[in-house]
Amino acid sequence: MKLFRRMGCRIVQGAFRLAIPFLPYRQPELLSSPEKAAELVRNKGVQKVLVITDKGVRSHGLTDPLTKALTWVGIEYEIFDETSANPTMSEVEAAVKMYHAQNCDGLVAIGGGSPIDCAKGVCARLIKPKKSLIEMKGVLRVRGKQPFFLAVPTTAGTGSEVTIAAVITDDTTHEKFTVLSFCLAPGYVLLDPGMTRTLPPATTAETGMDALTHAVEAYIGRSTTAFTRRLSVAAVKLIKDNLPIVFRDGEDLTARTNMQLAAYDAGLAFTISYVGYVHAAAHALGGAYGLPHGRTNATLLPLVLRMYGKACVKKLARLARESGVCGPSLSDMGAADAFISWIEGLNEAFGIPKTVSIREEDIPMLAQRTDREANPLYPVPVLMDAEQLEEIFRMAMKAESGSEIGPDRDQRSEN
Fold this sequence. Notes:
It is a single chain. With 415 residues, this protein is of the alpha/beta class. It contains 15 helices and 9 strands. It has helices at 3-19, 34-43, 55-59, 64-72, 89-101, 113-127, 201-220, 226-248, 253-273, 277-289, 293-308, 313-323, 332-350, 363-374, 386-397, and strands spanning 29-31, 48-52, 76-80, 106-111, 138-139, 148-153, 165-169, 176-180, 188-190. The protein starts with a helix and ends in an 18-residue tail after the last helix.
């Protein structure tokens, strides 16, 4: 990346880092059962909620505990189950239309990151009804009073239940974009391990690796705080100790509970300290090819960490030691390499592919989309422009595990 653009990116990131203590981040109120959630809805004076989910969640009966509890306390509901794996602008608009047509006055999102992001898009459109989602794209362009908004995650990984970002796909261009504002974070979250009990092993693993990616990118970036570092370490510890267990035995509700807490901690960490090129590249691939976000993150994470080179070695080494991935005796380089090798080992154990099927002619477009999302906001260890980012996608096409941490790039003066 050229000098003046690099300076501009770091100035923007520095300004946001200085502003962190003064920004209105908030943690949602946590609920422990569908019955308590339904009582809350009634106590808030909500008459009718729109439940946003997807067909898979609904067909597995995961909406039933809450909808039955709502009925028991006299709350009406309508269900929108048309959310796709990568929620689109048209899906958000269809949900908004149903919300108004059915005279709803509250939102409930039940599912993984996709229904929750769709609900956030609906929330944005309800707050700013005269603006399209494209017009609200970017940072802090939505301000206003949030309708009642309860999120019920059925996966343990996306962290969407605590974040301030809605990731939406443009139906026409198939490009993902983010609407990011404090009023989009759900006000209430129901964490019920029973909601994740029927998750297939592959989905359990992929969403868990998504949470790991959140924790790692939040920790190694340049906008960390003592609070977000503690959250990231806690999340990595929980993932290390519990994700292999729930992959083997989905009925272990203690491990399921711990994975929900890991996803929550990691989600809160990256909400404050942001993510990096792993996420931006995964969003580009998800928008272009419809790939599952968690799986793509898992594949890209070790590749990008090695690509960062020495710029992230000290932080990775500290994270490896503090989370118990390695002992204290290894050098920084050895500990960082052990951490990346641990990620690669998890991917192999979970059957997550080492490569992504990418069309060579799409690489410039994917790199440009990654560049647009990540720069100047994401406080990555090493800044890269679109031309440099193309290497991520070429590496993903022919990934080999166990390679050494990459060489320094042309950013030595800023690290």
